[in-house]
UniProtKB/TrEMBL annotation:
Residues 335-442 form the Pyridine nucleotide-disulphide oxidoreductase dimerisation domain. The lineage of its organism: Bacteria, Bacillati, Actinomycetota, Actinomycetes, Micrococcales. It is an enzyme of class 1 (oxidoreductase). This is Mercuric reductase. Residues 4-315 form the FAD/NAD(P)-binding domain. Disulfide bonds join C41-C46. One of its GO terms (biological process) is detoxification of mercury ion. PANTHER family: MERCURIC REDUCTASE (PTHR43014), PYRIDINE NUCLEOTIDE-DISULFIDE OXIDOREDUCTASE RCLA-RELATED (PTHR43014:SF4). Binds 1 FAD per subunit. It comes from Cellulomonas gilvus (strain ATCC 13127 / NRRL B-14078). The keyword Metal-binding applies. NAD(+) binds at G176, A177, G178, Y179, V180, G181, L182, E183, G259. Keywords: Disulfide bond, FAD, Flavoprotein, Mercuric resistance, Mercury, Metal-binding, NAD, NADP, Nucleotide-binding, Oxidoreductase, Redox-active center. GO terms for molecular function: flavin adenine dinucleotide binding; mercury (II) reductase (NADP+) activity; mercury ion binding; NAD(P)H dehydrogenase (quinone) activity; NADP binding; oxidoreductase activity, acting on a sulfur group of donors, NAD(P) as acceptor.
Length: 456
């Protein structure tokens, strides 16, 4: 039986981080993968979606820019060529950031399906393996398919298969208006598809932020139906979705984007003594340790926020814990970005979360019409919201719907993590005519609601 100090199941961001952590401590490590090298982010998540969103955004700007005297055009889309370019990017990153990195750090990757035999032993396609110190489960998530009447009778798309299409449909209904649904809906709309999106719109965003994006979607001709889908039916030319109010929404294709559940299929976690919740996510403590003290879990499969940088950090923590040096992830000021146009982004607590945590909070909302960068861009659809503790005046949360909102969130995370006050932000240099300047301007609203001159 082959033995390693640490065995990691998966090869995504969490798994690679665990492997690097183990090797940095001088331990032997094996990664096991039954699918493509690189996990969700590289293959079916962040990289392909943001690549296609960037392409679709270029086309949309050419067709709709606000500048007089400038002539541009947006012709038909050769989707096959776009998909080939996307796949070439994935292949290049898979080699440079995964295969080459594994070789450089000196840990092998075994192709095959992993399954626990008991609490101490793993089997990969019939080969028994044992880890001297422990295991890390980092198998990611898979699209959740709801139990919706009629759904099994139609050829629906998921966010994965949608990004493999070779021909553009004329129309599409998107089920789910969370971050994946929002990105996918606007992606296909910007490529010329008539899109209808069904579900509670941007449910995790601050209401002021969600309202901005809702207005943009409506301006762009995306039909937004904030109802629950109750039934799906195949039609002679596509699909029909019925809602709770008996609305009938039709499209050539149906895209299901109703969240993601843990991918723990056929791992035999019960045999390993590893508990999961009702959605399959592995139950872990703050050190990423499961109910089996020799098994740790990291990344999306462990129920943490589904961002690749969180996955990587939990991978480091899980490997360190398995090797006898437990630690924990510091989530203060955790940023998140939805790559719509405009982007919606956040760091830290929402207003409701701040109140629930016992803060006497204050909030200010800056409209994009008061941001010089937005004015010169000729697009003032946007907001920036600051949430602070009223007593200490420390920044608790930053939320935005702006062009490049995600670029503001690193500074926001620094402010939250290191305890900066709203006065610190107001009194700190900000370069004029950048969107990041909005942080300083919004901070000034806590001193006076009166307007200021450009840099005053």
């Amino acid at each position: 039986m082959d033995e390693y100090d640490l065995i990691v199941i998966g090869t995504g961001g969490a798994a690679m981080a665990a492997g690097i952590e183990a090797r940095s401590r001088g331990n032997s490590v094996l990664l096991v993968e039954h699918g493509p090298l690189g996990g969700t982010c590289l293959n079916i998540g962040c990289v392909p979606s943001k690549n296609l969103l960037a392409a679709a955004g270029q086309r949309h700007r050419a067709a709709t820019h606000p500048f007089e005297g400038i002539s541009t055009s947006a012709g038909p889309v050769a989707l096959g060529a776009l998909m080939e370019q996307k796949q070439a990017l994935i292949d290049r990153l898979r080699q440079a950031k995964y295969a080459d990195v594994a070789d450089a750090h000196g840990f092998p990757i075994l192709q095959g399906h992993a399954r626990f035999i008991d609490q101490e032993t793993l089997q990969v396609d019939g080969q028994a393996l044992r880890a001297r110190h422990g295991y890390v489960v980092a198998t990611g998530v898979a699209p959740h398919i709801p139990d919706l009447p009629g759904l099994g009778d139609v050829a629906y798309l998921t966010s994965t298969t949608a990004m493999e299409q070779q021909d553009l449909p004329a129309s599409m209904v998107v089920l789910g208006a969370g971050y994946v649904g929002l990105e996918q809906a606007q992606l296909w709309a910007h490529l010329g598809v008539a899109v209808t999106i069904v579900g509670r719109f941007a449910p995790h965003a601050e209401p002021e932020v969600a309202d901005v994006l809702l207005g943009v979607f409506q301006d762009e001709g995306i039909t937004v139906v904030q109802e629950r889908a109750t039934e799906v039916r195949a039609t002679h030319d596509g699909v029909e979705v019925r809602t709770g109010s008996e609305r009938r929404l039709t499209g050539q294709r149906l895209l299901v984007a109703t969240g993601r559940f843990a991918d723990t299929s056929d791992l035999a976690l019960i045999a390993a003594g590893v508990a999961t919740d009702r959605r399959g996510f592995v139950v872990v403590d703050e050190n990423q340790r499961t109910t089996n003290p020799r098994v740790f879990a990291a990344g999306d499969v462990s129920g943490v926020p589904q961002y690749v940088y969180v996955a990587a950090q939990t991978g480091h923590v899980a490997a360190a814990g398995a090797l006898g040096q437990p630690s924990a992830v510091d989530y203060r000021g955790l940023p998140g970005v939805t790559f719509t146009t405009p982007q919606i982004a956040s760091a830290g607590l929402t207003e409701d979360q701040a109140l629930a945590a016992g803060h006497a909070c204050e909030c200010r909302v800056l409209g994009a019409q008061d941001i010089p960068r937005a004015l010169v861009n000729q697009d003032t659809r946007g907001v920036l919201k600051l949430v602070i503790d009223a007593e200490s005046r420390k920044i608790l949360g930053v939320h935005a719907a702006l062009d490049g909102a995600g670029e503001l969130m690193l500074a926001a995370t620094y402010a939250i993590k290191f305890g900066l006050t709203v006065d610190d932000l107001a009194d700190t240099w900000a370069p004029y005519l950048t969107m990041s300047e909005a942080l300083r301007i919004a901070a000034g609203l806590f001193r006076s609601a009166l307007p200021t001159s450009c840099c005053a």
